[in-house]
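Record type: ASSEMBLY
Status: queued
Input:
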Amino acid sequence: MGSKVVSLVEAVRPIKDGATIAMAGFGIGSGPIALVHQLIRQRTKNLTVLGIIQGNDVDLLIGAGAVSRVDASGVTLEDFGLAQNFRRAAQNDEIVIREYSEASIYDRFLAASVGLTFWPTRGLFGNDIMKVNPDLSEVTCPFTGERYVAMPAASPEWTLLHAPFADENGNVYHPYRTDFAGFTEVILRASKQVIVSVEQIVDRTWAMSHHRDTLIAGWKTVAVVEVPFGSHPCGLGTLYSPDAEHFREYAQASRDRESFLNYLETYVYGVRDHWGYLERVGGMQRLMKLRSGSAGA
Amino acid sequence: MASHDHIASRNRYSLEELLAVTLARDFHDRERGFTGMATGGRTGVLIVGIPLAAMALARRTHAPNLSMLYTGHIINPALEDIKGLFESGPTLAAVRCEARQSSADIFSMVERGEIDFGFSSGAQVDQYGNINTTVIGNYRRPSLRMLGAVLLPEHFALFGREYILMEHSRRRFVPRVDFISGAGYIDGPGAREKAGLRRGGPRWVLTELGVFDFDPATCRMRVKSLHPGRTLAEVRDQTGFELIVPPQVPETIPPTDEELALLRHEIDPHGVLLGRA
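Status: finished
Output:
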């Protein structure tokens, strides 16, 4: 197997306008933000984004005009408030939103993860999601006659993942994962191809002695790129914390379109690459503070 | 929401303490209670902090085998390890607990109907106990888009029962929610069954003014008790629909000294859960 290690630019280049993608992470935790920034830099448009509960990952893409449709049960900046680009795009009818509940959209990934084309649920009965989502269809169990709502399987063409370590074959290791990794795991299994960024690319010797920390084997990995603090301003598992100060700046900047475009200019378009971004957000001395305290193994 | 400063000094208690003991008394031994993650300051106290304190109080009094599922993943946490109610990163991972379970385990319990009760809040609740966290206004062109339904559909469809904790205002207590993100009694008797729901639904709505339940005959919201010092006039003034009012409306039973001591000295010594921090 040849090495899958590429540059950040090369890693996301295959994602074309109109692609269906997912981003590993939950809410504002562990988002693949360096990959998202690069997707914005290459000006990809009309993406369909599949997620469970998403955060600034989807909100960034919406704010950059890259998204035409979102399937999710929620988009939120958690303690930093509403996801403002998502809010504005929905209010202006600029994106299509397919509403789901958290368990039902999890089940859509679960269906794809075991090669099925749909999944039945009881969780949506009585809910207005049934009225506004045209992809739902009521079915009857052929064995018991019970009523269910059938949902289409969710299989992203590409999933973007940021993790602590990967080897050049695309095996991903995550010794710092938290309870929320379960959401990532089902999305990865449902995906056709996975693009992985990591804090550090590890060699075979390291991999051979850390195999118990495997998050996912490298079968579907098509690219591996090394980008330290590649989840910033999200935290990454227990390795580093979210950058609360930057999130407050993001939340403030995204309140209107004009100031968000300035934000993108400052932190995405106006930096030469990910290294430029890390300097722009305060540099390594400041970033390493996010790794102190309760973070770490 | 103001504290109940008018209460005699020996037995002075806060609204959050009153809600916690009221909830605790409604839980049964061996039940499983679920708290999610909250967005926004006050909501965290209402649907995570107060519920955790209430479940811990029940465990220390009449329900020693009740299980708390904090964020669903964390089973019976050491509450003193909880530093804030909105955490999702390393600090949450550091909370000590009896056991942890994966997302797949959580959804298994949810969809198999193995969760007895949960807690929720929203921008709107209506007279049938439907709740809205999705949009204000018309769905296609809303005046406010909010986060979405998240796990609320399951809370109201698959849990055994749901407690709604809200701030009480005319803006929030509306005749009909703009979007049903969690289905209460929908539009009246028989509607849940007709829609395909087989169990669960809202049990109580708890606010700074009182506790409200649902009239079995009409499925409409009813005054169950008023908090000490609160009046029906106040409640009517802050509610955008007509409540069912029984001939006799009791006072919400205040916390005992023993309950207050447990809450303050053992369960929430740092005031993180009950909003004193």
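Annotation: Confidence is low (pLDDT under 50) at residues 1-10 of chain B.
Annotation: Chain B touches chain A through 55 residues (CB under 8 Å).
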